[in-house]
Sequence to fold (270 residues):
Amino acid sequence: MPELPEVETTRRGLEPLIIERKILSVHVYKRKLRWEIPFHLVKTLKDQTIKKISRRAKYLLIDFNGGQLVMHLGMSGSISVVPSIEPLKKHHHFEIKLDNSTSMRFHDPRRFGSILWQKNNEQLSLLKKLGPEPLSYEFDEQSLFNLSIGKTKNIKTFIMDSSIVVGVGNIYASESLFLAGISPKRVSGKTSANRYKTLTQCIKKILSEAINNGGTTLNDFSNVDGEPGYFSQILSVYGRNDMPCIRCNGTIKKIVQNQRATYYCPKCQH
Fold:
C-alpha cells in the first residue's frame, strides 16, 4: 500500500505538470472504486484551472475555485501524467485531459482507491479526525507521550493510529521503532517520555529519508514518471525475517500485530 512518502513523492511529481493547467474534459471509466466517483465531476471540473496540489495524510488535495478533488491511492493506485494520445491501459478508471495535450490518469487494479469532492468551506468526514502531520511542528514528543498515557495497545499499533499521527504506515513504523531501539511489543502507555522523544525524532528521520529516496518499491508503487521508489534498498528490518541485524549480532524476527507483519530485532529493541 502506498504510504505517506509515496503519496508525497506523487504530489511533488504532479505539481509542476498540472498547476495552472486548464481542464479540457474529464472522463470516468469506472465509477465504483472504494466509493463511487461523483459523476458531476465531468461537468464541475470542465474548463476549470488547477490552482494547487497538497497532501493531507495519504490524501492528495487538488484545489479549484469551487472546491477540492480528494484522491487516495488505496492499495495499488497510482497517478501519471502522459500524452493524451497515449492509449489507455487496463485499470485506468479516471482521466483529466489538460490544455497542453497531456492527461492526468488514475490507475488502480484493486480499486481500493478513491476520488471524491469537497466544496470550499466543507470537509469530508474522513479528513476530520486525522492527527498531526509527522513532519510538522505539531507532532512532538510531549504530545505523543501525553496521548499514550493510559493506552494498553502495543506501541507499533499506537503510532500507526491516524488519529494520533498520520502517515506512519506499516513499513515506516517498523523502521522507526528499530532506529529508536524500541520493541514493537512494548505497551504504549508504559513507555517513558524519554523514549517517546527518541521515537519522535526517528519517525521524522525515517519519513524524511523515504521521501528523499522516492518511497519504497513494495506493493506496486511507482512515481509519476513510472519509476520505482528506492527506499526499499536501505530498509533495516522490514522484510528481513531471519536475516542478521545490521546493528548487532541478533536475528531479525517477524511477528503479526493487529493483522500486520512486524519486523524487529529482539536483541537490540527493548
Q: What stands out?
A: The CA atoms of residues 69 and 117 lie 5 Å apart. Helices lie at 4-18, 41-44, 125-128, 141-148, 155-159, 170-180, 193-212. Confidence is low (pLDDT under 50) at residues 217-221.
